[in-house]
Amino acid sequence: MINKLILPFFTLALIALLSTGSMPEPSNPPTGNTGAPGETACMLSGCHSGGSFTGTVDISGVPDTVIANQTYNITLTNKSNAVRSGFQLTVLDTTNKFIGTLIKGTNVSIAKDNFNGRTYARQSAAQFLTNGETSWSFQWKAPASSNEKLTFYFVSMCANGDGNNSKDNSIKNTRKVIFNLPVANTDLNSNLSKSSITIQDRRLILSTTQNDVVQNLILTSLNGIQLIVNSAATDNIFDLPGNVHGIYLIQYKTDQTMHSEKVYIP
Question: pLDDT band at residue 11, thresholds of 50, 70 and 90?
Fold first, then answer.
């Protein structure tokens, strides 16, 4: 008797699952739909399609140059002639890997895709447009190190709000920024130690105006790989690996001052 009841139950559950395409726009859209490399823009067959809405999607709160470990308040805005909207966003470096930390906001959830390893901000609730506009706010924290160029990929849905996924279409955009490590501003205090860098015989030599001991030196390649992490060194001299050639980012501390700059290693 129990088996006879279980089979109809699972049959009904399967029918309900297969019929989700006719349900209203999902509160949490599937990941991997930002238009980033290897991704769609939520316009596949069986998903949202057939619409002809026009408009723009953009983000604000992110400067042209982002600083390591800084947190930015992002607002994503859809301006269009649609009725209802949602969105999805990710941030990738030049190797197309997710970078930084996304932090949820009002009506915004964060999800990681275990297949591609990327993290996404997306609507936790679809919103109706008012006077042709709607927006979501959340945060993104820059990483401690990365290569120079980062790209925000984002898509926003333009839906007619009838509860079906037909006669809808998406709009997409990108925002490219430059990543930079924090640089000490020695002009604020003439007593702060200044330093110079010399490369000689596969050694990196740091000379400071106040003979400070260099601490916490980090040498990072432009693709974000840390090659040297050293808390201190004798006479401020650091040995370089034999395969280190080209332009690198160097970050270190002298007394109470943090320094960050680029260095060319021949």
Answer: very low
